[in-house]
Design goal:
The protein is about 60% helix and about 15% strand. By secondary structure, the chain is α+β, with helices and mostly antiparallel strands.
């Protein structure tokens, strides 16, 4: 039961208990008065006469029964109104929490240190928001330090790796061919990793110069389809590929191609048996969804995670791109959403 229902239930229960106490007290008092106390009445024709009497048990039961029936007819609607009032009160009380949640959802790596606005001057909420903002500031500073460190490391490694590859090429005659190819392959892999790390660091720091041009997502995916179907087949992965024609989005074509390469490459590399790709236009949005199953033990051999970090950094750094990840422990899914504009409408 969620918070609003619990609060409405407590509100209704409190009113029900209060009404029950009042009804019980009134019932006991009236029963006592009708049973034990006599009434005195003068005769209308003879004022000097004084008549004494009391109600019978049947009359008392009849009177109390009618009163209880009236109380029930009044109490049940009152209880319903109390439940409704409690639910509305709970909903209204949760509005500041919803605003805090929306502000947190809208946070990006570049806006962590700015904090979130205080929805209202309630002491409890004010303290909560202050603690959240302090935490966001520390996370933002740590993220900036990590990004700057990654950028410095990538810069420092890029030049030595290039020089090392050149020296290996010059000494090709002195190195066995198999060893030469193996060294070049490993250095190429390291160079690619360094380039990706540098690009991710630039994107996370907000220093990425991305274009926003109309790009045909359908054509781009079709260009990649054959290569990744072959790669999936080599890995014994059933690739279910369904994309709608004529999809256009506002993006940087180079960065978008990098994002798709990373996502499809990871699905083919770490997938267990199947991967499903869907891309479609719904209303004012274009949606890309890629999901694949994977073996939990593959996490230990999944590399350093720079590919996913790069995808997230590129997507977040470009306006109009919404990026989300869902990991159930067995299935990994990535969702990209673009809002349509006049420029992307065919």
């Amino acid at each position: 039961m969620n918070f609003r229902l619990r609060m409405a239930a407590w509100f209704g229960l409190a009113l029900a208990v209060l009404v029950a106490i009042l009804i019980f007290t009134a019932h006991q008092h009236l029963d006592h008065e009708l049973h034990l106390k006599k009434w005195d009445r003068s005769h209308p024709k003879f004022p000097d006469w004084s008549l004494h009497g009391s109600y019978t048990d049947a009359e008392v039961k009849d009177i109390l029964g009618e009163l209880i029936q009236v109380w029930i007819w009044v109490g049940v609607p009152a209880l319903g109104l109390a439940l409704g009032a409690g639910f509305l009160l709970a909903s209204h009380s949760l509005r500041p929490v919803k605003r805090i949640n929306r502000a947190l959802v809208e946070k990006t790596t570049g806006t962590l240190k700015t904090g979130i606005p205080l929805p209202e001057k309630d002491p409890v909420l004010s303290e909560l928001v202050s603690q959240i903002n302090a935490l966001l500031f520390r996370v933002g500073e740590a993220y900036e330090e990590m990004s700057a460190y990654s950028s410095r490391v990538a810069h420092e490694l890029r030049t030595p790796l290039t020089l090392l590859r050149m020296r290996i090429d010059r000494a090709a005659d002195e190195i066995p061919p198999d060893l030469h190819d193996e060294l070049q392959e490993e250095l190429g892999r390291l160079s690619k990793f360094v380039a990706r790390s540098l690009l991710a660091a630039q994107a996370e720091a907000g220093h990425l110069d991305a274009r926003h041009d109309p790009v045909s997502l359908s054509d781009l995916l079709e260009d990649l389809r054959e290569s990744y179907e072959i790669l999936a087949g080599q890995s014994d992965i059933a690739l279910d590929w369904k994309i709608a024609p004529g999809m256009r989005v506002l993006s940087d074509s180079d960065f978008l191609r990098q994002i798709l390469h990373n996502l499809l490459g990871n699905a083919c590399r770490y997938g267990a048996s199947a991967a499903r790709l869907r891309a479609w236009t719904s209303g004012t949005r274009t949606v890309f969804l890629l999901a694949n199953d994977y073996r939990p033990q593959s996490r230990a051999t999944g590399g350093l995670g720079i590919g996913l970090r790069l995808v997230r950094a590129l997507a977040v750094s470009m306006d109009g791109h919404q990026f989300a990840i869902r990991d159930t422990g067995r299935v990994f899914a990535v969702r990209l959403v673009w809002k349509l504009s006049k420029e992307t409408t065919p």
